[in-house]
């Protein structure tokens, strides 16, 4: 299952009791939101970086979105947005997004408990100093009613190339919907899931405990991963060399091309990740996951230290990939 | 020019004066043709291999055709066909093809004089012992009137990927036709020139001396190679990295794929040969040319020592290519 589940994430929506919701907030109140949050978190033991939207150029913003450390939505909610990010990138607290706070906890692989613990540790620290908008009937109050209750979204990212190839995702979507869960592509616009990466998460935040939510998401993720595993094994059993051929062709292209778009990269990355998970290619799943982030346009430009033309991005991306795979010539 | 001209070949058609042409020959006379040829060539200083069609299985026949050491036509002219092949494969004498004898001389690169000398050395040796059908007005008499006169076909094989890509081959064909020359694809059926390999040769054997023929073919080959060179340089000047990208993608696929058809191989081989000729890939043109022959179906099966299923051929071909490029993993 470790080869199929990429990562786990928990997000908590929180709003300060004594401040109006974001849409009715004054600039001063938005600044107050940031200040009190930083003050309350001043004594966290680990190293954190503080970033304001105003202090970030386009490339840096893009790179943070690509790493899931800030949401695309944060960019759309005015210039008061900010984020406090733990150095190891396991925790990120966004300020002045749709809610006053969006606390994110991350964990590698299938591990919602760790991701939740990361997020709750911040929630606990804040609640020792500050009061959140909370109703004893409804739970946490949020800007959008869909988040009321736990204010929690638990999500698991899965790599499902075989379920995609064999057109099983419609069936999987139905299964998830029945259980109040939803599946979306990541890094993709519209219905197309680039890299065959999917995010499974809870749709409902009300009427279930945090633990019920993480357990439901984990159970369905396990089921999806099991299906994917069976299809992988069946496909290999049918014609192992055809399978290996497909993986190595992508490996050969990634390790030799001189100019590659992100769209083409995602196609070959999916084969790379598949081969890594099945121990059929000379690369680890972790290295694949690092490559995935580093090959995104913001990261490529951040590594170059400047804004690049689209063609330059494709060239620098290829350079980076070749050096990561270092079998390239 | 060495990067564009692959090889040179001269073929002489000869018939014994006292034997009827092939189509009216008895089996005994066909055997006599072989015997007297072998007897006359018994004392050649170099090592030769003698092969009879009857003694060759399908795989061996295919491999000899692929190496141009025997013609596809030899296989179609009954089971009396035979060939005497110099060990270094610079000379091949076919017996009982369309004519009694088809003497072939080969040379690397643009070198019709050497190829001609190779062929003529055999012709001279034979004429010291035996008499060929010859008319003082017409020259050598041949089974098909198109070969009468010198009985010579001089051909130069060229690799013309850029002229092909930029749709210049129509123009080039017209130029050749005006000068009594013809251009054909090799290893290809119909009009498609697999690997962008073309053979330029004389159409007319009568009314020109051997030297005039080789000079005309050489002159036009030089002109074609010069055109190809200019287009290569222009394309690199326009976008060197796009060019390099194309070459390295083919290199990456060739050095990593696990199953490759001959048709797909020819596409990537052309890029490999182009990159080798321009010193942009870590392989020499000579190694490319060896790979071209070794990747053909007959050679792949010959190396395996048995007849293979089509899918096995594609697998063994890939193994062979990877080991030849040895950057493959």
Descriptive key words:
homodimer; 329 residues; alpha+beta; eight-stranded antiparallel beta sheet; two-stranded antiparallel sheet
Helices and strands, with pairings:
2 copies of one chain form a homodimer.
Chain A: E1 5-14, H1 27-40, E2 48-52, H2 58-66, H3 72-76, E3 82-86, E4 91-95, E5 101-108, H4 112-129, E6 134-135, E7 139-140, E8 152-159, H5 161-165, H6 169-178, E9 181-185, E10 197-202, H7 210-238, H8 240-254, H9 262-277, H10 285-294, H11 297-304, H12 310-325
Antiparallel strand pairs in A: 1-5, 1-8, 2-3, 3-4, 4-5, 6-7, 8-10, 9-10
What does this entry look like structurally?
Two copies of one chain form a homodimer. By secondary structure, the first copy, chain A, is an alpha+beta fold. Chain A has twelve helices and ten strands. In chain A, the strands form two sheets. In chain A, strands 2-3-4-5-1-8-10-9 form an eight-stranded antiparallel sheet. In chain A, a hairpin with a 5-residue loop joins strand 4 and strand 5. In chain A, helix 9 (262-277) runs antiparallel to helix 10 (285-294). The mean pLDDT of chain A is 94. Chain A binds chain B through residues 241-242, 244-245, 248-249, 251-259, 282, 315, 318, 327-329, and chain B through 241-242, 244-245, 248-249, 251-259, 282, 315, 318, 327-329.
In short:
With 329 residues, chain A is α+β, with helices and mostly antiparallel strands.
């Amino acid at each position: 299952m470790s080869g199929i589940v990429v990562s786990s994430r928990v997000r908590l929506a929180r709003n300060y009791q004594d401040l109006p919701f974001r849409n009715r907030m004054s600039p001063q109140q938005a600044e107050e939101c940031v200040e009190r949050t930083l003050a309350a978190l001043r004594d966290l033991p680990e190293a954190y970086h503080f970033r304001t939207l105003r202090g970030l150029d386009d490339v840096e913003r893009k790179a943070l979105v690509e790493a899931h450390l800030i949401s695309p939505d944060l960019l759309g909610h005015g210039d008061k947005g900010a984020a406090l990010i733990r150095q190891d990138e396991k925790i990120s607290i966004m300020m002045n997004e749709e809610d006053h706070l969006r606390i994110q906890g991350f964990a590698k692989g299938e591990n919602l408990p760790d991701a939740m613990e990361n997020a709750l540790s911040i929630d606990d620290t804040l609640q020792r100093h500050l009061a959140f908008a909370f109703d004893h009937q409804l739970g946490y109050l949020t800007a959008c009613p869909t988040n009321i209750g736990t204010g929690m979204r638990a999500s698991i990212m899965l790599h499902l190339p075989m379920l995609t190839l064999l057109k099983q995702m419609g069936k999987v979507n139905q299964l998830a919907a029945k259980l109040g869960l939803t599946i979306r592509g990541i890094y993709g616009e519209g219905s197309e899931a680039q890299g065959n990466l999917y995010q499974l998460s809870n749709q409902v935040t009300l009427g279930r405990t945090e633990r019920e939510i993480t357990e439901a998401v984990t159970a369905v993720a396990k089921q999806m991963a099991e299906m994917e595993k069976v299809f992988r094994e069946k496909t290999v059993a049918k014609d192992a060399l055809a399978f290996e051929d497909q993986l190595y062709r992508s490996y050969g292209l990634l390790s030799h091309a001189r100019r590659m778009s992100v769209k083409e990269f995602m196609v070959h990355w999916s084969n790379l990740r598949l081969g890594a998970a099945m121990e059929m290619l000379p690369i680890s799943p972790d290295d694949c996951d690092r490559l995935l982030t580093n090959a995104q346009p913001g990261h490529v430009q951040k590594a170059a230290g400047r804004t690049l033309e689209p063609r330059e991005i494709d060239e620098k991306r290829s350079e980076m990939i070749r050096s990561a795979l270092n079998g390239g010539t």
